[in-house]
Specification:
The protein has one helix at 50-56; strands at residues 10-13, 25-30, 34-39, 45-49, 57-62. It has one domain. 9% of the residues lie in helices and 36% in strands. The termini are far apart. The chain has a 5-stranded antiparallel beta sheet with strand order 4-3-2-1-5. The protein has 1 helix and 5 strands. 18% of the residues are buried. With 74 residues, it is mainly β.
Length: 74
């Protein structure tokens, strides 16, 4: 299944990040041949090939159009 996404979209991944927060919410912070995403639980950056990302992403949750401040204040 193809999921359309763009820079700064908040996405839900199929598997949670193995950190304390166990969140599936990540923000896309770089796009190109590789995709860089930030875990919205712990803030870690993860770089992966676009093909891997396409397989691991489930859906787009929000499109804020800008980087989220991190750590989040809410
Ligand atoms: Zn994390």
């Amino acid at each position: 299944m193809f999921t359309a996404y763009s820079l700064y979209d908040i996405v839900e991944m199929k598997k949670p990040h193995p950190c304390k927060e166990r969140t599936k919410r990540f923000q896309i912070v770089m796009t190109g041949a590789d995709i860089k995403i930030r875990c919205l639980g712990c803030g870690n950056l993860i770089l992966m090939p676009r093909a891997d990302f396409n397989e691991r992403v489930r859906r787009v949750l929000e499109s804020p159009g800008r980087p989220l401040p991190f750590p989040r204040q809410d």
